[in-house]
Amino acid sequence: MHISRNSLFRNFDDFLRELGLSSAASSGKKVTTTEELQRALIVAGDEIRKRDEEICRLSSYPIPISIATAISVKTSEKDNKVFAVLIHEGKLIEISVPSDKQIMAGDTVRFSSKTLQIVGVDKSYYSGTFAVIRNILDENKSEVDYCGTVKVVSNGRYKDRLETGDRVVLDGSASIILDNRGKTDERYKFTQKTNVSWEDIGGQKRAKTALIEAIEMPFTHKEIYSFYKKDKRPTRGILLYGPPGCGKTLLGKAAATAMAKIHNSGGVPTGFIYIKGPEILDRYVGAAEATIKQLFQMARSHKEKEGYPAILFVDEADAILYKRGTGRSSDVERTIVPMFLAEMDGLLETGAIVLLATNRPDILDNAITRPGRIDSSIEVERPDRETALLIFKDYFKNVPLFDFSIDEAAELATDELFSEKRVLYEITLGGSRKGEFMKFTLKNLASGAMIAGIVDKAASEAMHHDIAQNTMQGITKGDIITAVSLILKNNIGLNHVDELEDFTHDFMKDIENVKKLRQTMV
């Protein structure tokens, strides 16, 4: 294809005009030499490069910025320059600190991954993991319990503000302390009022007497205890065992209230440390052991601050302190139980009193329940008729009654609960007792929790009547009878193996048949 010289120059002039350039041709001057053409091409090339660079800049990714924690800051003796040591992608890097920025160990540093130039400093931290101070090595380093292992970390800016047992936040690489959260873990601080007195607990005379002797008397009768040489060692631990819902937790609260009252304290939250056994378990190896150490450290801190022992209440203790070698939960008890034992043996210095609550004392590890660690084993029994009457009176004080007194309501509810007509199982006996029958009734499942449930259901029945009739009468006798019947009905479909075993313990060999009565009176 042939292109004439005039056509080429015309096309070139159009191209220059599109770029906003002028040339000899566009200015009316005719381009006649090669030199003039080359100069025009150079001008056009420069403009094209500028436009291309602008396009690349606008279409490229932003400058990559990395974030890391400053592990230390040092000054060069040679030229007096300041350098920050960072951990980035598992490696230590050293970056020069600009003169207009100040960095301290523990600061969050933003820098360019390409040029390693610091572009920003943040005094706060974005994320981290918890650890517990095990030992302070010097002003710059500490030993911590971290995820079941022991690590040495940098104290950072907290070199003068750390104590053994503090909960600290480590950076993502677990190399430096970013924050100190103190010794208190809000998860285990009992924030509700602990002002439950012994008088607030219906019945349980033997349990309350045993607890008072173990907790109060060593302080209220110091002279007598000193006379009998029993003032050298405080109570280490107490085991509360019995059916669920019978007041073990209430007894623990009353013990904490009594301890605070003796020492003229209003019942500080740290005086009662409450935890459920399953809460200690953790999927990470060593985390449960660290929690146990933390609980005992909280007790030690309370003793140091308030001057009297804290009540460390472990509910459902069988979840973590069962016999070693049973194979449950991959034998995690092989490490949890020894850790608990080690901390309990240190109670002579801490003054904490451990209360273990369980409805399965038979599966607890023998090393836990032996004398010297558990000084008292207290059975929390099911309420008998007299105790149930007292508990009913306490609960009926808080609800409106229709046309009868609190005493009458408590009498009626107790009669219904302990009625021999409310049968769940019929047991046929043989052997020396052949031809005899025994009845397992609702009273054999009685507990403080059940009594509270009966009053609550009676109130619900009364509310339904009042809503339907647009009245406000209160609980009737019929509501109480219906409530007990509903409790019985709810228990018909449940499994009561443990309760039956306890009920038939003394004549187990004579049992021929246990019949569950589904068509019982409801």
Question: What's a concise summary of this model?
Answer:
With 522 residues, the protein is of the alpha+beta class. Helix content is 36%, strand content 20%. It has five domains: 55 residues, no CATH class; 58 residues, OB fold (Dihydrolipoamide Acetyltransferase, E2P) (Beta Barrel); 52 residues, Beta Barrel (OB fold (Dihydrolipoamide Acetyltransferase, E2P)); 182 residues, P-loop containing nucleotide triphosphate hydrolases (Rossmann fold, 3-Layer(aba) Sandwich), CATH 3.40.50.300; 132 residues, Helicase, Ruva Protein, domain 3.
Strand residue percentage:
15-25%
- Helical content stands at 25-40%
- Mean pLDDT, as a whole number? 80
**Which fold name fills CATH's third level, the topology of the largest domain?**
Rossmann fold
Number of E strands:
18
Number of helices: 15
- What does the overall shape look like? elongated
Distance between the termini: 109 Å
Main sheet properties: 5 strands, antiparallel
User: How many separate structural domains?
Assistant: 5
What is the fourth-level CATH superfamily of the largest domain?
P-loop containing nucleotide triphosphate hydrolases
Question: What structural class do the secondary elements suggest?
Answer: alpha+beta
What Rg, in angstroms, do the CA atoms define?
39 Å
Q: How would you write the strand order of the largest sheet? A: 3-2-1-4-5
